[in-house]
Write a structure and sequence with these properties.
heterotetramer, A: alpha+beta, 5 helices, B: alpha+beta, 4 helices, about 20% helix, binds adenosine-5'-triphosphate, binds magnesium ion
């Protein structure tokens, strides 16, 4: 496990700095517990700011940090497909672009299924599916081609 | 290996037989609030062997069976079939295509299917071991679950890492 | 208190049905507890759907229900000002319009201070303030006039 | 009664003296992630007498004092002044305009001010009693707190109703 911790830490450092365009981050084992039950803490510093307790981070900074953590693991140990349900809700437009860029970089290796309301994310997709309820209470799915999808950003 | 197709019927708001054909790359699902997008995510989790109905926002098992609308009666069964392209044989079986199926009846009876033959839930769970498509994995991030990585316990993060290694 | 419960229930029914364009809702005291310590449960039915346990609701439906609850109280017992921090994050465009319409209806009586990333909400405002960090890590606030604000939807 | 103006200095990311003049009606605050919007909400909560630093995303009291950047040193004090238009005399005092102020020093010392005269924290809290601008009220809904109404305990909902009545 400690072997893997080194790799995970490495991947997280790299992914974090890439996705935030700077800053520093690392994964550390909790000190005050027995080795086998020690949890993993995240220590980080946003670009230009000082290292601070995680709680002081903004909603969007937290969301993007969690995304960096997940993506760091995906790069290290890919899964065949990854389903993401509205994980981009808290991101501003700039961070949304970074997030979608990352998706595109990994899309050769991993199939992504992304539920979203955000236009920028929709535009990053190669296949769009619209879910609707023409009959109240009963779902129905249709395949949408990319140009119509912009107006489907509901 | 990738998720090729989902067939959903009687599962939550999917009263009618619904087929969703997916492609490699980035698949986007959009739609208004409450129309069924997260229900699709629940369907994937469920057919992969999710045993805890609370992870699917339910309280009792039959909550995931279509329970009717103003105009339509409840149904007696929920079923989800997931077809996976296995041409790279990431799953340790000879088939190039695998269909995993799950049914739940209001009586409480369940069925699990692997390419049409009846199996047990643990056979389905075992099939996917090592692929990362697991319970503690990070292959499905549900709505509102993202923050758990930071807000959750340090030990949960360890479990995620252990699952990955 | 039970007097107030009746008023609150009434206001919630009305607000819910208005904001969802249908459906039913009510506030009920928990049965299985002593009167003084009984909590308040919410029972509801979305338009066209059957009454279901709250957990089965979608992210957006839950958000709008919470908004209906808060607004029901605001109509009953207004506060001088109300600060809302990104409460519109989970709403689709249609529900966003309903939410902003409600804000406008109450804005004569209550001063709203709304933090948002959503264009529709920004357009409902009469005064816009942009917060930025020209120096990394140090916040700065400027008043924006309404026409520029559309491009500030970050 | 409405919130006319906020003056913030040394509070969280507001290192420099910042004045925000608000109007009746709908005031919108926008900006990128992490630029300080929720910090403004925290400042309002804090100056109204929030005693629990965890409600402001802090762990210890001095977390709310500007703690520096790559290029600027930490500061020794956080202060927030909130000016309220009281021409309708909703607040039971003779003034048509009220300024509530709060300071915190790194030493741990605190100051509370009401129109420039030193008061205790409970005087500030009492001033706002009955207006709904209270601890359990619904006048400030922080980021991510909305869902609490549904996800929280039934008893918490009761407390909110009791606060309102
Ligand atoms: N067993 C069931 N029978 C019928 N309808 C159900 C059942 N379970 C859930 N639903 C309905 O499905 C809807 C929720 O769908 P879902 O969570 O997929 O929405 P969503 O598209 O993700 O919306 P959002 O964008 O708001 O997250 C709810 O209206 C709920 O009432
Ligand atoms: N005491 C402090 N000193 C300096 N910076 C601080 C302090 N406390 C918090 N911050 C910084 O303030 C930023 C958070 O600001 P805030 O939560 O207001 O962002 P926001 O504009 O609401 O963003 P979002 O849109 O992502 O919610 C963080 O980057 C945090 O590091
Ligand atoms: Mg959803
Ligand atoms: Mg914020």
């Amino acid at each position: 496990f400690s072997q893997f911790m080194l790799l995970a830490n490495e991947s997280f450092k790299r992914t974090f700095t890439e996705i935030f365009g700077g800053g520093e981050a690392s994964l550390v084992l909790e000190e005050d517990s027995h080795y086998l039950s020690a949890g993993v803490d995240i220590v980080l510093k946003m670009p230009g700011k000082r290292s601070q307790p995680l709680n002081l981070l903004s909603g969007g900074e937290k969301a993007l940090t969690c995304i960096a953590f997940i993506f760091a693991l995906l790069r290290l140990r890919p899964v065949p497909f990854c389903l993401l349900d509205e994980i981009d809700a808290a991101l501003d437009e700039t961070n949304l672009m970074r997030f979608t860029q990352f998706l595109k970089n990994m899309a050769d290796e991993i199939q992504f299924i992304v539920i979203t309301h955000r236009q920028t994310t929709i535009e990053a997709g190669s296949n769009i599916y619209g879910v609707t309820m023409p009959q109240q209470g009963i779902s129905s799915v249709l395949s949408i081609n990319v140009s119509d999808s912009i107006s489907m950003a509901i | 290996m990738y998720l090729k197709r989902l067939d959903i019927k009687g599962f939550k708001s999917f009263a009618n037989e619904t087929e969703i054909i997916l492609e490699p790359g980035i698949n986007i699902i959009v739609g208004p609030n409450g129309c069924g997008k997260s229900n699709i995510a629940d369907a994937v989790r469920w057919v992969l062997g999710e045993g805890n109905v609370r992870q699917l926002r339910g309280q009792k098992n039959e909550d995931i069976i279509f329970n009717g609308t103003d105009k339509q009666k409840p149904q007696g069964m929920a079923m989800v079939d997931m077809t996976i392209d296995n041409s790279d044989h990431m799953l340790p079986v000879e088939y190039g295509e695998i269909t995993v199926g799950r049914k739940l009846f209001r009586s409480g009876e369940s069925e699990y299917l692997l390419n049409k033959s009846r199996v047990r839930m643990k056979d389905i769970v075992n099939l996917f071991t090592g692929t990362g498509l697991g319970k503690r994995g990070y292959s499905i991030i549900g709505q509102g679950e993202l923050e758990q990585v930071l807000n959750g316990q340090a030990f949960d993060r360890r479990l995620i890492l252990e699952e990955a290694s």
